[in-house]
Every structure is written in structure tokens, then in C-alpha cells.
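tool_call: predict_structure(chain=1)
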Amino acid sequence: MKKSVWKNPLFLIGFTFIALMLMSSFMYSLVWGNEVRRLYFISVEGVVVESSPISPKWLFPLGTDPLGLDMLGKIIIGAKYTILTALVIAFLRVLLALPIGFILGTFLMKYKKYINGWIDSFHYIPLTILAYFLLEPILWEPFGGFPNSIVERFIIEILILTFLIVPILSALFGNEVSMLYKQEFIMSAKTLGAGKWRIIFKHILPGMKEKLVIVFGQQFMQTLIIFIHLGLLTLFLGGTDVDYQMVNDPPRSITYEWSGLIGDSFRYLQGAPWVPLTPILFFSATMLSVSLMIEGYVQTTSGHSYYKKKFKAAYRPFNERKDPPVQADFEKVKM
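tool_result:
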């Protein structure tokens, strides 16, 4: 009897965390909008004992930022922007790369060596730096204000961060398809007269189901990492609000999305560490939740541990391997 992924505890833990973050974010905005509690100082008998940024307290479990805003409220508001945008980007990457991968792995197999050689060059381009130069004119607020709306900025950023990865992901899918195309059951189907499109939809696509789920989760986590990098470069999701007054405030996030909360508060890491560490903690918890969902899905569908198998394959000595060493084996020992 086939097991249900919803009965796997690891998958449920990861899914529950992400679902709770999204539901609480939408409920918060529905009830309070984007208003965040503020506490400037704490006084005892008329004497100020602590001013913002205020360290975590019972009523403010994650403390406040230098402006006295509740960090928990900012995290909850920004959750929907951060998580949903990363999900959309990951989904679009897989959706666009998959048909290209099918074409590369079936119709263009004889050109595979040349195409992979060209696509491999993308591995040596720093993705964050390239994304920064492409997005800076869109997300950095000019002196006269943004020329386009926040929805347009979100759409442009989603498209750019999607198309930057599509070539690499297409080559990955193409290699996977070409490997499956050489399997015995595919050869049998070809002998019986099955065409390439029937083989793709009836045999290859079902065989790649587990791979697609894993890649989708990996792309989601990679997108979150790019958000963090861009946040440290003060390029925030949806746009960076820049103050051009003579006595200006630091650049800030418009939507309280998590990368902006890191970028505009990282300078407080020494004096008020809870301010930048709070969004970092929630980024880490979200990525851990996705990893648990991947592990739970693989355990349910194939019966083995994804990360345990991956760890053993990565660190198995050369003399114990049946397969010849590949380029990835030598990348571990680069100086």
C-alpha cells in the first residue's frame, strides 16, 4: 500500500511551519494592515531604564528595532512577501526549464556536448553580482521616486531571478532525461513503436517526479539565499526606500520582507544582535522546513533518506566507488 506524504512527520513539520507563517501573515495584514507595535523606551518609576532598540521582553519576544518597532510584527508582515515570491520564482524556474530539458535530452542529444559546454559557463558567473547589476536600476529608489509601481518591481525581479537560472536548470534536466532515455524500459517502448512525445509523457516525466520535487525545493532555498545576499547589498525585495534628505535615514525595506530586515539592520549585529539575527533565524527556519519536506517526501516515495544517501555519495572514498570520478569529486579539494 502506497504511503501518504501527509503521514510523514518530517514533511508535516516543515509544511506546518511554512503554512503557519503564511496564514499568520495574511491574518495580521487583514486585521491590522501594516501597522506595527512601537515601544520607544521602558521606564521604572519615571526613570528610563532602556530605550530602543529594546532587547526581547515578554510582550516583545523578539525585541524592537532602533525605531521601536516590534520585530515579531515586522517578521509576520514580511513573511508572505518573502515566502510567496521565492515559491513563485522556484516554480517558474522548474516550469520553464523542464520543457527545454526534454528537448535537450531527446531531440538534441547529439548536440548535448556542445550545449552543455556553453551552459557550463554560467556556473562561473556570480549570480548575486549579476542579479544586483540587473536589478539595481529597478529596485533602488531614484531621487524623484520610483517610476514604476511596486507590483511592476516585483514582477521584474521575479522574471530576472527566474531567467538567470533557466539555462543551468535546463541542462540539468536535459542530462537527467538523456540518462532515462537510455534505460531498458525506454528502449523497449521505442521497439514497440512509441514516439518521443509519448515516451516523454508516459515514461520519462513520471520517472522524474521525485527529481522535480527535490529540484523545486532546492531552487526555493537558493532563491532565499539570493534574497539574503541582495539584502546585504541593500537591494531589497520590492524596492529599496532611499532617503535623500540632508540628514537622511538608512535605506529601508518597503514591505518588511526579510532580506530588507537583514540589510537595513546588519550594522546592529554587535550592539543589538536580536535585530539582524531575527530575520536570519526565520530565513534559516524556512530553509530547514523545506529540507524536512524534501526528506519526508523522498522517504515516503522511495523508502530511503535523501540527505543520508547524498552525504554518503559525497564523502565516499574514491577506492570504494564503482563509478569513475567526475568533476564534482575534484571540486571538493580545490585550494
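agent: The longest strand covers residues 47-51. Proceeding to next step.
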